């Protein structure tokens, strides 16, 4: 109703004030062209700083692209990739990346589920608890990694002191950085600490969207809280579980800051004296910006990209099977 | 009486569990503060210090007066980068979100689909080529190289489009049009006042992510006199003889702004993360 009234008024408007031509052009520009100007910044910037680098990376990976030693620069075809296939540094880093990834993702998502389940109750101070578990999320990774680097030091480290309280390592303190497994665990602890609360909130938001009558029916069947969680809640929030699995895969396989700053001398980007915890991202950094061999670093980036695609795909399938199979 | 978990009151066990989780969440930040306030002896003692000392000012003075790490400048740089990226993200994302949600133009849906597709692109993997692009532009080693890639994000455009779609009735936009207002004016007088909550959420998420970013700033600013505070921290921790009370005093200073943000805007952050999940 109101609209038609207004439209009539709109038609009569010329009687009072004939529109000036520039106004008409302005109106045309404003409705036809201006919307494109509003969305243009995103597309232009993404093209320059997002899409182009990703494609150009492929070009760089087919060249010798050295920042200092420039006389060899030029097309090398697939040389970088054949070199990669036989590069033990790369495969070792891949093993480390996967080891740390599994140690940091599986507990992370399981604990996030448990915590979300705890938060999914009628609680006093619900907002307070939710804000509290976000503290690790807002803490800079660089800062928290440095705290953990001290926490896991061999002599006078708090981690070893806690272990000694339960009677472990009194003779010989555990050298966290020396061993493969211990260094992986230390780094995984950092990743877990940072992301559990964040993922718990993602799960919680999905849990609260589950219709209540689903639980009514289960209660009649006599399902206890534990069975309720595994047989109703988890299958119902499966899309979000899938989302977090994929997100953690993409993030976890690119792990960089934690292993970098766990080193006693981060500038070296060693990932341990025997590279026992060096991740692929760290290796890319080392090859690209210490050895200045950008062509080879770009090839490694591509390899990592493919690996992430494959693993994220597999993980997504596995998650769907596990969730839908019951 | 509903049997749904969210209607079941928490038992003392749930509160006990939550308190334990909160302790674990807060402990590293607390311990950062402990070491930042301790002397070398306290850091090296066994058991390690668990209670703050009185050396905070001494340690801070050392951090801020170091000859080879420009910590004060790096904090200012972090602030410049985070504020510039946040302001620009809010402006461009809300503008684009408004266009996608409320304006009719050819290709609207297809272009929005492309925006959503770009959400899945792992940007970090283009880092080598991005470095070469910045070299061509002559921006490596300057703050421009850190700011430019973050000026507008796919997530921000998507988030704003969803919010504006729900929050602003079409009639409101139409009415303003009939009054003869141009699009930009409608954006400023109708859209912006109505989306303040979403601006707060996106602003917080963007500021936190930008302030905390490490890998790309490290690559482009390495070895310059203009690092961000995260790169400066890595410089503090590098070298043959590292003084941890100094490193963690710096880390603590770089963490404080974010703890304050969490205290002030925690509610919005929680909402943002929980809303972002319901895609």
From TrEMBL, chain A:
<dbReference type="InterPro" id="IPR051393">
    <property type="entry name" value="ABC_transporter_permease"/>
</dbReference>
<keyword id="KW-1003">Cell membrane</keyword>
<keyword id="KW-0812">Transmembrane</keyword>
<comment type="similarity">
    <text>Belongs to the binding-protein-dependent transport system permease family.</text>
</comment>
<dbReference type="Pfam" id="PF00528">
    <property type="entry name" value="BPD_transp_1"/>
</dbReference>
<feature type="domain" description="ABC transmembrane type-1">
    <location>
        <begin position="94"/>
        <end position="315"/>
    </location>
</feature>
<feature type="transmembrane region" description="Helical">
    <location>
        <begin position="33"/>
        <end position="56"/>
    </location>
</feature>
<feature type="transmembrane region" description="Helical">
    <location>
        <begin position="181"/>
        <end position="204"/>
    </location>
</feature>
<dbReference type="InterPro" id="IPR000515">
    <property type="entry name" value="MetI-like"/>
</dbReference>
<protein>
    <submittedName>
        <fullName>Carbohydrate ABC transporter permease</fullName>
    </submittedName>
</protein>
<feature type="transmembrane region" description="Helical">
    <location>
        <begin position="98"/>
        <end position="119"/>
    </location>
</feature>
<feature type="transmembrane region" description="Helical">
    <location>
        <begin position="236"/>
        <end position="256"/>
    </location>
</feature>
<keyword id="KW-0472">Membrane</keyword>
<feature type="transmembrane region" description="Helical">
    <location>
        <begin position="294"/>
        <end position="318"/>
    </location>
</feature>
<keyword id="KW-1133">Transmembrane helix</keyword>
<feature type="transmembrane region" description="Helical">
    <location>
        <begin position="131"/>
        <end position="152"/>
    </location>
</feature>
<keyword id="KW-0813">Transport</keyword>
<dbReference type="InterPro" id="IPR035906">
    <property type="entry name" value="MetI-like_sf"/>
</dbReference>
From TrEMBL, chain B:
<feature type="transmembrane region" description="Helical">
    <location>
        <begin position="110"/>
        <end position="133"/>
    </location>
</feature>
<keyword id="KW-1003">Cell membrane</keyword>
<dbReference type="InterPro" id="IPR000515">
    <property type="entry name" value="MetI-like"/>
</dbReference>
<dbReference type="InterPro" id="IPR035906">
    <property type="entry name" value="MetI-like_sf"/>
</dbReference>
<feature type="domain" description="ABC transmembrane type-1">
    <location>
        <begin position="75"/>
        <end position="265"/>
    </location>
</feature>
<feature type="transmembrane region" description="Helical">
    <location>
        <begin position="243"/>
        <end position="264"/>
    </location>
</feature>
<feature type="transmembrane region" description="Helical">
    <location>
        <begin position="69"/>
        <end position="98"/>
    </location>
</feature>
<keyword id="KW-1133">Transmembrane helix</keyword>
<keyword id="KW-0813">Transport</keyword>
<protein>
    <submittedName>
        <fullName>Carbohydrate ABC transporter permease</fullName>
    </submittedName>
</protein>
<keyword id="KW-0812">Transmembrane</keyword>
<dbReference type="Pfam" id="PF00528">
    <property type="entry name" value="BPD_transp_1"/>
</dbReference>
<feature type="transmembrane region" description="Helical">
    <location>
        <begin position="139"/>
        <end position="159"/>
    </location>
</feature>
<feature type="transmembrane region" description="Helical">
    <location>
        <begin position="186"/>
        <end position="211"/>
    </location>
</feature>
<feature type="transmembrane region" description="Helical">
    <location>
        <begin position="12"/>
        <end position="33"/>
    </location>
</feature>
<keyword id="KW-0472">Membrane</keyword>
<comment type="similarity">
    <text>Belongs to the binding-protein-dependent transport system permease family.</text>
</comment>
């Amino acid at each position: 109703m109101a609209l038609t009234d207004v439209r009539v008024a709109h038609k009569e408007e010329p009687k009072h004030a004939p529109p000036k031509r520039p106004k008409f052009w302005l109106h045309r520009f404003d409705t036809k062209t201006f919307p494109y100007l509003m969305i243009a910044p995103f597309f232009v910037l993404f093209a320059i700083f997002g899409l182009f680098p990703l494609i150009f990376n492929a070009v760089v990976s087919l060249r010798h692209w050295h920042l200092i030693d420039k006389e060899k620069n030029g097309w090398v075809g697939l040389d970088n990739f054949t070199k990669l296939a036989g590069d033990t540094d790369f495969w070792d880093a891949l093993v480390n990346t996967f080891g740390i990834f599994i140690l940091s993702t599986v507990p992370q998502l399981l604990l996030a589920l448990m915590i979300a389940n705890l938060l999914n109750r009628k609680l006093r101070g619900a907002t307070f608890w939710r804000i509290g578990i976000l503290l690790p999320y807002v803490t800079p990774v660089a800062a928290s990694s440095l705290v953990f680097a001290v926490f896991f030091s061999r002599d006078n480290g708090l981690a070893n002191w806690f272990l000694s309280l339960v009677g472990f390592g009194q003779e010989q303190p555990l050298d966290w950085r020396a061993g493969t497994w211990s260094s992986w665990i230390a780094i995984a602890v950092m990743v877990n600490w940072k992301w559990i609360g964040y993922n718990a909130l993602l799960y919680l938001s999905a849990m609260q969207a589950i219709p209540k009558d689903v639980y009514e029916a289960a209660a009649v069947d006599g399902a206890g809280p534990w069975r309720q969680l595994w047989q109703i809640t988890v299958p119902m929030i499966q899309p979000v579980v899938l989302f977090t699995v994929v997100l953690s895969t993409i993030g976890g396989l690119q792990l960089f800051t934690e292993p970098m700053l766990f080193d006693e001398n981060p500038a070296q980007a060693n990932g341990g004296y025997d590279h026992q915890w060096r991740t692929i991202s760290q290796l890319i950094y080392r090859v690209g910006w210490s050895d200045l061999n950008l062509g080879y670093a770009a090839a490694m980036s591509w390899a990592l990209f493919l690996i992430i695609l494959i693993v994220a795909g597999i993980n997504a399938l596995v998650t769907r099977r596990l969730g839908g199979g019951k | 009486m509903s049997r749904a978990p969210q209607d079941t009151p928490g038992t003392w066990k749930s509160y006990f569990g939550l308190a334990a989780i909160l302790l674990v969440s807060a402990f590293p930040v607390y311990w950062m503060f402990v070491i930042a306030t301790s002397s070398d002896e306290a850091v090296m003692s066994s058991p390690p210090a668990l209670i703050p000392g009185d050396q905070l000012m001494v340690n801070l003075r050392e951090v801020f007066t170091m000859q080879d790490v420009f910590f004060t400048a790096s904090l200012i740089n972090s602030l410049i980068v985070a504020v510039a990226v946040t302001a620009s993200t809010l402006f461009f994302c809300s503008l684009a979100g408004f266009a996608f949600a409320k304006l009719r133009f050819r290709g609207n849906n297809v272009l929005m689909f492309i925006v959503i597709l770009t959400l899945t692109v792992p940007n970090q993997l283009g880092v080598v080529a991005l470095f070469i692009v910045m070299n061509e532009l002559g921006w490596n080693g300057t703050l421009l190289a850190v700011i430019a890639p973050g000026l507008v994000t796919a997530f921000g455009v998507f988030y704003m489009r969803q919010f504006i779609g729900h929050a602003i009735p079409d009639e409101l936009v139409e009415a303003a049009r009939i009054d003869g207002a141009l699009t930009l004016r409608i954006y400023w007088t109708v859209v912006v006042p109505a989306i303040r909550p979403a601006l707060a959420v996106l602003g917080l998420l963007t500021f936190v992510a930008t302030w905390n970013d490490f890998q790309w700033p490290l690559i482009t600013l390495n070895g310059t006199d203009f690092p961000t505070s995260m790169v400066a921290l890595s410089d503090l921790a590098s070298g043959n003889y590292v003084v941890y009370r100094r490193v963690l005093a710096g880390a603590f200073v770089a963490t404080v702004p974010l703890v304050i943000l969490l205290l002030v805007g925690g509610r919005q952050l929680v909402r943002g993360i929980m809303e972002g999940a319901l895609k």
